[in-house]
């Protein structure tokens, strides 16, 4: 064990550990930010498979800390475990970067990989190595940082855990901004593609830097040797205690103070005492996954909520998935404020704000964040279009002809001028939609003979009493990710292609509608392929209106008197009106909850663990995150709520109940100092060894003298 040098009251070694953590978190979150799009756009998996693989990877990252803790505490020690698994981690990042090189198998240079299974296999190997590496070092790095402090440096150690958490979020914030910017660059040897190799390569380089920085500080670290297979001893001791207690369950045997005391016949008191410390903390961990169940929905439910909102905040235009950076930004701001201002103020007021009280407050704040999310959702729901239920159909009439048309529905009729549509979709019960008829002045009534598909929107295109077409819209919800749906209707007699912002609408036939394609916000340029009917002097390049968030439009391409094309735009789904800025209060609340819950939990787990089981307890803490994600899948899957706000309220209520239970459990928890307890055992061992020495010395009698 080497002695750590000091700087500003802190061991110099922790600065290497903090820089290492910043680089490692940059590497992890930068890579993770790209995964879904990499699966969808490069490998070509659908949304469901991409999401399943993504969540499986994240779950593995939070399950492997148990393995890392076992290796550290039982075999290699924390330092060697971090170095060894960081090498595995770096290799994994390099492998996934290589897997994204299009030219690796693009032998015919057409821009499409010729052997996709090779890319899939490499990416899965890379992700497996990353999961082993990042998960394996997770419980070791924070515990290794805590090891650098001496007795009497509790205040500095608590501050270290705050700085450590700050480094995590600073790395996360920068990487989630930088790596998507790298991805949109074009690169390649034979064909230019989205630059995934660069976007994955930078995180790989940062992981290599993290490893180098950590190794450079090697001579300054306090390194503790592993103390044998601790976990095996713990499991055997607990098993023996339970077995022995069951054997002596009759009343004739006197009760013992603690159920683990039934292991005293076989195991020494030091080990039993250490296991008592761990089990007491593990018992407190039982309610904690509920916090993570809410916290981790920032990347799922809250992002989906943002897709139904407007991202124009002042001069900024925010994408729905960029709202997650609010959490990282607020963490960077809030950790120093809470640590340097809020906690000292509370202490001056004479309030004993213990670790478990902080964690209780954190759970309450997260619960309130979901109440705010539910309120925001109610406001969003007021602005959302009403889509048809399973037994209903919705119909909109669009007149693309040159005559006024009247359309008769059961119980109502609508008259439309040329190039106009009904103000909104009309909803009909399928059983009551008995007939639809079209008429124009002086012409006979024509019935619409079409079997409307239940649960869908339809557009009835009319351009003469005996000329109509029913088009199924295919949009039963707001466009995902805040994008905008655009389709074209061709009123020419010829077919044509349309290219809009790199996407092609192929062969839009006469008096028919294309499928919707989706585009981010902004003004989009598009080009019509000329037809035989189009005079050569006509322009074929046009621009859309300024697209906002979550809208859908139909562009009717119509012939003018000079034979050239002109555009008429019709709104199908209005853009989002509730501003994303309304999400900031819920992000603020959950971030405050995270600061007082997560930072405190890391420090509490370290401070209450015996010296040889600190990584095991850190792994137990990280395991609560994995269980929290499983809770989300269970509740969301079993609930099937028709209203999203109701699901938010359910999660808020569940966490509030858990918060009360945790507060009661915390009330009966007694804080301990493992170092003092272990020091007492050391003193007892010294006394026993001295007694043994004296007892082996043979007394000398006067006669012998």
Question: What does this entry look like structurally?
Answer:
- It is a single chain.
- This protein folds into three domains: 8-228, MFS general substrate transporter like domains (Growth Hormone, Chain: A, Up-down Bundle), CATH 1.20.1250; 268-383 and 586-689, Growth Hormone, Chain: A (Up-down Bundle); 392-573, no CATH class.
- 51% of the residues lie in helices and 15% in strands.
- It contains 17 helices and 24 strands.
- The strands form seven sheets. Strands 7, 10, 11, 14 and 15 form a five-stranded mixed beta sheet that branches. Strands 16, 19, 20, 23 and 24 form a five-stranded mixed beta sheet that branches. Strands 9-8-12-13 form a four-stranded antiparallel beta sheet, with no helix packed on it.
- Strand 8 and strand 9 form a beta hairpin.
- Helix 10 runs antiparallel to helix 16 (644-667).
- It starts with 5 loop residues before the first strand and ends in a 9-residue tail after the last helix.
